[in-house]
């Protein structure tokens, strides 16, 4: 009797163990069968990669996405020319490796029972491909486009011919709006499979400072001033005057631009042909290279004043000049003293200088509308003969409308 009970017990135990082990084995076996495969209902960009190995999933995605995207193009329209860059050139690619790795690892961190549930009653898992590219080829392409497009404007020029002026027209410049273009190119890049993208480049027109229309404002003589240098000049001094005058002759100054005598004439050197001639140094006169050109700056100073333009930088001599009234002079010394003025007129001016037959002359040309006003330079010398105030008077319709003090000079005693 006891023996039968023991046998029944053993049989019952075996049945129970078998009842537990067989389902467990089935669970383990099912989970084990997916060791090298992606779990069910996993999709990448909508592509079902369930039950595929890593290599199979990579090939599927590469064939569908990576190969076609490499052939996609960006067409950049620049005027009547089109520049093209392929997605392959910008190394455009999907991160397929990461997406497949994420798909394969999905559910791997779960327990065996949870993995089994995931296999038997799967829940959709969606993974998106990330997309990236190299921006440097885009920068390189834009640089090449800039070389083709960018062009500095060319100023017009004016030449005095006979009693009138001949104008060479200006030429517009162009500048690619490169920052805007780069932004638009990048905005057009995407991982969508389909048509090429088209981008329109915008170009800015750069106008020249000296346009034909502005230069047309040079049409009338508005002032002139002359001094005599023949009786007081050696051949060397006369040469210096001619050289400095020629450096200024034909200069055009636009509204708001500044003239610098030293900047235009430059350093007076023997290499340029300047010669030694008398120069005022302090209260004495000595020989110096370029002596005599203060008569050039003085003559120009007075001609410009008579056009209604005041000096911004001007110094008088320490020794009164014999070729102009007291206080009418403007001395220069390269590196030390300069004569400067700013064109305060609404029109450009053309400076014509000549030194012929012992006479130094500067003519200022601008728009005929300026002739509505005339100017006069007057001085007021005190009884000592060493102090002088200089005024620029403005007249309109025969009436003086302004009397501006422009100099208050003191000349030291000299031998």
TrEMBL record:
Pfam families: PG_binding_4, VanW. InterPro entries: Glycopeptide_resist_protein, Vancomycin_resist_VanW, YoaR-like_PG-bd. The chain crosses the membrane at residues 6-25. Keywords: Membrane, Transmembrane, Transmembrane helix. Residues 83-192 form the YoaR-like putative peptidoglycan binding domain. This is Vancomycin resistance protein YoaR, contains peptidoglycan-binding and VanW domains.
């Amino acid at each position: 009797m006891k023996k039968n009970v023991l046998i029944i017990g053993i049989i019952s135990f075996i049945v129970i163990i078998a009842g537990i082990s067989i389902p467990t084995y089935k669970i383990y076996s099912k989970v084990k069968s997916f060791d090298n495969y992606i779990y069910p209902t996993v999709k990448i960009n909508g592509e079902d990669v369930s039950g595929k190995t890593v290599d199979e999933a990579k090939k599927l995605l590469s064939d569908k996405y990576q190969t076609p995207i490499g052939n996609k193009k960006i067409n950049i329209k620049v005027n009547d020319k089109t520049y093209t860059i392929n997605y392959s050139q910008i190394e455009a690619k999907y991160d397929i490796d990461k997406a497949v790795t994420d798909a394969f690892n999905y559910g791997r961190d779960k327990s065996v029972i949870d993995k089994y549930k995931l296999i038997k009653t799967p829940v959709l898992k969606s993974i998106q491909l990330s997309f990236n590219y190299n921006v440097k080829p885009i920068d390189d392409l834009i640089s090449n486009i800039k070389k083709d497009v960018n062009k500095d404007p060319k100023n017009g020029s004016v030449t005095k011919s006979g009693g009138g002026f001949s104008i060479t027209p200006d030429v517009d410049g162009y500048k690619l709006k490169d920052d805007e273009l780069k932004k638009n190119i990048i905005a057009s890049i995407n991982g969508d499979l389909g048509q090429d993208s088209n981008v329109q480049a915008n170009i800015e027109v750069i106008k020249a400072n000296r346009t034909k229309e502005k230069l047309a404002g040079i049409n009338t003589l508005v002032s002139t001033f002359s001094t005599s240098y023949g009786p007081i000049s050696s051949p060397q001094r006369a040469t210096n005057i001619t050289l400095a005058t020629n450096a200024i002759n034909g200069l055009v100054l636009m509204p708001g631009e500044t003239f610098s005598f030293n900047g235009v004439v430059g350093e007076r050197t023997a290499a340029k042909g300047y010669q030694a001639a008398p120069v005022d140094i302090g209260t004495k006169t000595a020989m110096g290279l370029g002596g005599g050109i203060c008569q050039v700056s003085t003559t120009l100073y007075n001609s410009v004043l008579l056009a209604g333009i005041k000096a911004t930088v001007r110094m008088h001599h320490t020794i009164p000049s014999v070729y102009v009234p007291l206080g009418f002079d403007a001395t220069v010394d390269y590196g030390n003293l300069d004569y400067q003025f700013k064109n305060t007129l609404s029109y450009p001016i053309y400076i014509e200088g000549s030194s012929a037959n012992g006479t130094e002359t500067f003519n200022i040309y601008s728009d005929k509308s300026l002739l509505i006003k005339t100017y006069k330079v007057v001085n007021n010398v005190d009884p000592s003969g060493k102090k002088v105030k200089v005024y620029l008077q403005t007249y309109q319709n025969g009436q003086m409308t302004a009397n501006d003090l422009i100099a208050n000079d003191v000349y030291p005693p000299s031998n």
